[in-house]
User: Fold this.
Amino acid sequence: MSSFSSNNTAALAVIAILAYMYFAKRQSSSQTSGSVFKTSLIKEEFLPFELIDIVNHTEDIATYRFKLESETHKLGLPIGQHITIQYTYKNPESGEESEIIRHYTPVSLDLETSGYFDLLIKKYPKGKMSQLFRDIKVGDHIKVRGPKGFYNYEKLLPKKKNLFMVCGGTGLTPMAQIIRGVYLNSKHNPLLDGISNFDETKITLIYGNQKEEDILLKKELDELVAKMDGQLSVYYILDQAPKDVSWVSKVGYADKELLETAGLKATSEDDNETQVLLCGPQGLVSGMKRMLTSDFNFPRVKPITKMEDKVFVF
Ligand SMILES: Cc1cc2nc3c(=O)[nH]c(=O)nc-3n(C[C@H](O)[C@H](O)[C@H](O)COP(=O)(O)OP(=O)(O)OC[C@H]3O[C@@H](n4cnc5c(N)ncnc54)[C@H](O)[C@@H]3O)c2cc1C
Ligand SMILES: *[C@@H]1O[C@H](CO)[C@@H](O)[C@H](O)[C@H]1NC(C)=O
Ligand SMILES: *[C@@H]1O[C@H](CO)[C@@H](O)[C@H](O)[C@H]1NC(C)=O
Assistant:
């Protein structure tokens, strides 16, 4: 940082003040992202967004950056919600075309990002939307509408004492958004000095993957664990043991013992302190639902969950 010129320092100070004003405004208002900045999304209409960058992480996982209307525009997505992408899929064998839609949770946040949004995508060999992300080039456009979803973290009031998250693979993306949102509004965010109503929600994340290379945003998560000083705990579980297992909480599936180690306690009817959030492969989600009911006294989880529920499935 010592190489920064005074001009840069002044510019940073201005950015810090603007960011501060933005956070302060959001703290004192229950309005969503659209209240201060111009936003780009429309609920009922697919709009084109231009791809401006791709960063590969592995052969089938990459971050795609899309441009908004101007550098000051924000996407307009409340924390916890997702966007819908439409694509004309072409069957490679028959050549037959069909319109498909899929849902994605950006990993960038309106709280701290203007002018673009980022999608972290895993491509599947035979996946239909995966075809779009395999073929897309910088300069191409995708069709997006939103926001959508039953969970809107900004409207979750009062905030929960604990959020207990269990996810697998790209199921991390809604969790990552909420974790980042909590951090930005927590006392650990240096830009928030002086604001008193911090978000004090304690977050436990149990994150499962097949192998080490599949773990998304590991560096970002580990940095937040360090910065948040006990407010965030992360438990990695893997199907295949890596060379160094010291940072892995379990090789195999999440079981009762692991959830207990991570601090989950049996709930009771009048206990509203902890909410469990689930996202990921069908097997993980249904297994967790069963375990929460049989081993932790949670009510049976309905097929479609609402933000008020003790267990929410994205
Ligand atoms: C709220 C929400 C947020 C999401 N956020 C993200 C995100 O941020 N990033 C992300 O990458 N994904 C995210 N997803 C998942 C995403 O919506 C898609 O499901 C995913 O990208 C796969 O879509 P696809 O069309 O490529 O695959 P699909 O064509 O739907 O197929 C999915 C997988 O199933 C296999 N498959 C397809 N048909 C069959 C069949 N008949 N039998 C057996 N296997 C089959 C495919 O080979 C592929 O492996 C999210 C989902 C939800 C609901
Ligand atoms: C990213 O990966 C894709 C597909 O594997 C490849 O075509 C592309 O060249 C890669 N881009 C970079 C910048 O490495
Ligand atoms: C839990 O319930 C009590 C009593 O109804 C209420 O005062 C409190 O705000 C609730 N807390 C949360 C986190 O929902």
Notes: The mean pLDDT is 89. The CA atoms of residues 267 and 297 lie 6 Å apart.
